[in-house]
Amino acid sequence: PQYSLKDAYRNYFPIGAAVLPNQINNSKIANLITTQFSSITAANDMKPTYLQPKEGVFNFNVGDKIVSFATKNNMKVRGHTLVWPRKMPKWFYYSQGKAVGKDLLLKRIETHVNTVVQHYKGKTYCWDVVNEAIPFFGPNPLDSNKDSLYIIAGEEYFDKAFYVARKADPNAKLFYNDNGFEWKKKRDRIFEYLKKAKARGVPIDGVGMQGHWGIDGISEAYLRETIKMFSSIGLEVQITELDISIYPIRSSGKVMKAADLKSTSDAYTEQIQTKQAQIYSMIFRVCREMKGQVTGITLWSPYDWANYLTKRMGKKNYPYLFDENLQPKKSFHDVV
Ligand code: XIL
Predict the structure, then answer these.
(1) Which of 30, 34, 83, 233 is at 20 to 30 A from 257, Cα to Cα?
(2) Which positions are catalytic residues (predicted)?
(3) How much is the pLDDT for 143?
(4) What is the tally of structural domains in the chain?
(5) Would the CB of 131 count as within 6 Å of ligand 1?
(6) Average pLDDT along the chain
(7) Residue range of the domain that includes 157
(8) How far is the CA of 43 from the centre of ligand 1 (A)?
């Protein structure tokens, strides 16, 4: 196309894409990424299991390649993610074959966060410090699934991660990142938790709404209200993993399971393309109108390579702004 996302949004905020290493190694895809986007996130390669697969063994290889690709092409880097309670490497929870105790677990959080943030200091302009820690249901403020950091270390692990990250790179913006903002109950839980955390002094700068949304959309009023809410407690807001699935993601409040979609057609009809473009342009318009409160939008893939959604729902998907042949879609034109 003759115009680009990054130029169109130059006076608003960075437009990012989550990338895989094989995408930046492919010259056509790399070209799409560098001409269209102004920010990059590693879709996987800076997660704890990738960066520290064994205790004390840090593997920055692939993360470094992604970061130097970004730097070389004048793109910002959104770091994702330092602490992901449900997806920490297994070793985090054990010490000499036994369940790890609280002190050692907190020490491991500290070492991981400190080492990674210092390594990328000055290169990552922000970090998802904690990812998906707040549950949809249940009596506890943080997730209490078995194996979680919360069971062993309580809320301290959350605070610790932010304090250590702040100290390791005082210039990086620190985010809490999560899904499910479209569901009021979960959004409000996140809001209450972050409000309290800020009140007790935890250095949180922003909230990331993942934005794995669907053709059933999200209402404009609700999106505005959500941004306003978080901004009222001094947090900047970013949409960090945006995709608009061609299927609905909720049915009467419940998140769709693959089985719920079994009989749904996977035809990417003109009607669905139009609907998807309307949702995309509404979201981008609201974010433009609330610039300052909103400081970034990242798509969870540069183009319709929907492995993550396909795996989860078992159905072909077309959730992004460029198609499988890297060509701009109606959604792209409308957003620009
Ligand atoms: C996903 C990646 O896209 C997949 O490649 C991987 O297999 C699993 O993780 N929430 C997040 C992201 O915060 O890190 C997830 O990314 C998608 C959901």
Answers:
(1) 83
(2) 241
(3) 84
(4) 1
(5) yes
(6) 95
(7) 5-335
(8) 6
Is residue 333 scored above 90 in pLDDT? yes
pLDDT on residue 291: 98
Task: Examine the residue annotation and report whether 110 is marked as an active-site residue of this protein.
Answer: no
Domain of 168, CATH number, reads 3.20.20.80
The reported pLDDT for the residue numbered 168 is 98
Residues 6+ apart with CB under 8 A from 330: 273, 274, 276, 277
Can you tell me the mean pLDDT for 198-212?
98
Distance 184 CA to ligand 1 centre (A): 23
pLDDT computed for residue 251 by the predictor: 64
Averaged over 7-14, what is the pLDDT?
98
Of the candidates 186, 204, 185, the one whose C-alpha atom is nearest the C-alpha of residue 196 is 204
Q: Report the C-alpha gap between 69 and 30 in whole angstroms.
A: 9
Among 55, 51, 69, CA closest to 118: 51
At 177, the amino acid letter reads N
Q: Is the CB of 210 under 6 A from ligand 1?
A: yes
DSSP string, 93-143: GEETTEEPPHHHHHHHHHHHHHHHHHHTTTTEEEEEEEES-S-SSSSSSS-
Cα 235 from Cα 4, distance rounded (Å): 28
Q: Provide DSSP, 289-314.
A: HTBTTEEEEEESSSSS--HHHHHHHS
pLDDT average, residue stretch 39-49: 98
Residue in 242, 270, 275, 261 with CA at minimum distance from that of residue 316: 261
Tell the residue number behind the tokens 């079994």, with chain if given.
262
* Nearest-atom index, ligand 1, CA of 301: 3
**What is the 60 CA–ligand 1 centroid distance (Å)?**
19
Give residue for tokens 């007790």: 200
Average pLDDT over residues 21-44: 98
